[in-house]
Amino acid sequence: MLNKTIEKALNEQVEKEGYSSSLYLAMASWAEVKGMAGVAEWLYAQSDEERMHMLKFIKYINERGGKAIIPAFKQPGKEYSSVKKMFEEVLKHEQFISSSINNIVALCVTEKDFTTQHWIQWFVNEQIEEEANATKILDKLNLVGDGNLYLFDRDIMSLRGEEGANAADAT
Ligand SMILES: [Fe+2]
Ligand SMILES: [Fe+2]
After folding, report:
1. What pTM was estimated for this model as a whole?
2. How remote is the CA of residue 9 from the centroid of ligand 2, in Å?
3. Which tens digit of pLDDT belongs to each residue from 116-135?
């Protein structure tokens, strides 16, 4: 049975994962309208993955005798000044999510909830990958500069690598 402190922290993470999904969906739509089909595809896939993360938290909370609450999500941005600026925001957001997951790990130790501490390790590893992927994309964008993004847009899906396989394990 989850204690109330852990349940509250996990429900807050439901909101953060759901917001991540909305954020990447908004970015995907922006990129699609701008004609960047590859970037949009990457972001749509990322949005799906975040929804899976949210579901993972919802199901875990309910399975452990808690009650998952589905929150309202704040509206993500509508405009980005450049693809690079957008991916900088992706990296910043993933760093924020990583610190949030780390805070839950710390809370699990304080609350002696070693079951949840063990369970959430999947997310600790996932965040290493999420940050690495965003960094890898930013490195590529720094190489091409603000000029011609045609090849970047064409090749971005190949940068997803193992992540897709990982996402399939998420449910
Ligand atoms: Fe996530
Ligand atoms: Fe993420």
Report:
1. 0.91
2. 17
3. 999 999 999 999 999 999 99
